[in-house]
Target: Lipoprotein
Amino acid sequence: MKKQIAALLISVLSMAHASACTFTWHHYGEESTRSLINPDIGSHVTDAYCAKFNAKNELFVQTSTYVMNNMAAGHAIVGIRPKGSNAHPIETFTMLSTDTNGRTSGDAQALAVRATLKAMDNLMSELQTYKVRN
Model:
């Protein structure tokens, strides 16, 4: 029974790895925020992105964090641009996450991560009509 479960687990993990692609993404914002995004961004990049855009393009991510008197906020802009380009994408998806209980820069960074991943999900849902600047 243990061998069957182990074999099943290995086959599931192998399939997940086979469908993934290695992609490039460039972040504008605090390096510490990028470090928080990095472990999770891959699970938000779809096979459709890999097939249609990955060869010639990279993901663009810009984040900002805000701590105010009565809340914290994280803002993200995501898009796709040609690899090696410094241009801002012509089409972007923006997300703002807020928390009225947030009071620290760490709270704001967590919100920026959440905003980035939600914006990335929105971008991935619109790939059929997405346009990249040439």
In short: The first strand starts at residue 25 and ends at 28. Residues 24 and 111 are 23 Å apart (CA to CA). The two ends are 55 Å apart (CA to CA).
